[in-house]
Amino acid sequence: MGKQGDWYLPEIRKDDGMTTQDYAYRRIFNAIMLGAIPPATSLTMRGLAAYLDLSPTPVREAIRRLSSDQAVEVLDNRRIRVPQMRIGRFRELIELRIVLECHAAVRALPHLADIAIADLAAVDARMDAALGMQDYDQLTHLNHEFHRRLYLSNPDQAIMPLIESVWLQLGPFQRQVLKGVQSYYLVDHHKTILSALRDRDADRLTVAIADDIRDGIGRSGAEALEGSQDLPPAG
Amino acid sequence: MGKQGDWYLPEIRKDDGMTTQDYAYRRIFNAIMLGAIPPATSLTMRGLAAYLDLSPTPVREAIRRLSSDQAVEVLDNRRIRVPQMRIGRFRELIELRIVLECHAAVRALPHLADIAIADLAAVDARMDAALGMQDYDQLTHLNHEFHRRLYLSNPDQAIMPLIESVWLQLGPFQRQVLKGVQSYYLVDHHKTILSALRDRDADRLTVAIADDIRDGIGRSGAEALEGSQDLPPAG
DNA sequence: TCATGGCAAATGATATATCGAACCGCCTTG
DNA sequence: CAAGGCGGTTCGATATATCATTTGCCATGA
What we know:
- Two copies of one chain form a homodimer.
- Chain A is an all-alpha fold.
- Chain A has two domains: 20-81, Winged helix-like DNA-binding domain superfamily/Winged helix DNA-binding domain (Arc Repressor Mutant, subunit A, Orthogonal Bundle), CATH 1.10.10.10; 87-225, GntR ligand-binding domain-like (Four Helix Bundle (Hemerythrin (Met), subunit A)).
- Chain A has helices at residues 20-33, 45-52, 56-68, 87-108, 114-132, 136-152, 160-179, 183-198, 202-225; strands at residues 42-43, 73-74, 80-81.
- In chain A, strands 1-3-2 form a three-stranded antiparallel beta sheet.
- In chain A, strand 2 (73-74) and strand 3 form a beta hairpin.
- In chain A, helix 8 (183-198) packs antiparallel against helix 9.
- Chain A is globular, with a radius of gyration of 18 Å.
- The two termini of chain A are 14 Å apart.
- At the A-B interface, helix 3, helix 4 and helix 7 of A face helix 3, helix 4 and helix 7 of B.
């Protein structure tokens, strides 16, 4: 394997006014979220800096933020890596997603205007299109956007950063999951979520969110982890 | 007001092998957790660096981590501050604490050995002592340690960093809360928690945790926020 | 063949230098 | 006396320099 052949950082849209450090953060964030960096890959700040054509300083700051997000771990020997997944931690993360996202959805519900539900439906439609084109990175993006928009409808929310942290920790699975046979189930669950939203039915909403998570990444991830203590890389 | 008279950073035990950046992080983390930095105080990286007798670089990295923890916000004009609290966000944070910590406690329950419950009781006893001596910083520390130990009993837990983030965001209230008249209620709730743990009763545990949070910081904080949209500084 | 010692290169941590933007007082002007 | 403008000062962002560790690799020897 090449010295730096194990990972890549998908390009992102670079807003101006974006600081270099922020750019590095989002670039790496995005890569982890999409599963483009296999777990246990050893990263170096200077290597990332060279890849991004930056000095080590802003990359270091980005890595610090990501370590607070639990997206990477900084080992004692100062090595940086995306954590290896273990079955126990995986189950905890899935349960966390369910608890957090059900809570977030229910608390967003009173704030959700009809127009916002229509926007969500539009995102869902774009997911169908992305699925048709087998554009899995885009599918992952849109799935996150669907959930994010829903939860952010609550103007006082403080939960979204926590949810994103869990997403990040599950990031290495996203790719693998969406390529699995369960993909259409995920989309179906979104239809159920939309229906519950339109009826303002908190109970059905909770069930739909939980099912979405469990049948999506939950089921596929658990399958991938079956039998082995550690998760095989998503590649 | 003096140029730097509004805040101070309580000293902490400095392990060796601790990196300077980590030291800065923990020092500021601790200060926010104890409410030693009033909300809306304008901080500068150079000012913090001078106070800690460090170069700006490690302080900057610590601030980045804290911004990912939602403990500080970095404004567009590059000003750094502990966020102002608003009543809506406060309610969200309290509900978040309840959801997260009830979940964490229930999932810790099966892993909790009798000896660990005894340890928790010992921490609670130290809280009674700290209360007697009116050592509120210590009381806050011990309160966090009580909860932290409980939740960390689950070896696969991934929730603790999220809970700490919420604690941090509520940090500016801790001081104010523990000085309030509700202090003994808090301790009483810990006795109820311990009782539920001994009986391995998940339902009673959930109620006890929720009551602990609601009657502790929840009630006092809500009182402080009553009538005003913004929270007065804890000073 | 495989363990071991050691050296050169790479790395992380931190301090410092530099640069442009933001801020702060003060002074002018109406 | 109030509002606006000007210039020096401070600040954050980033690049670079420095230093102690760590890594990796290769030679040596069991």
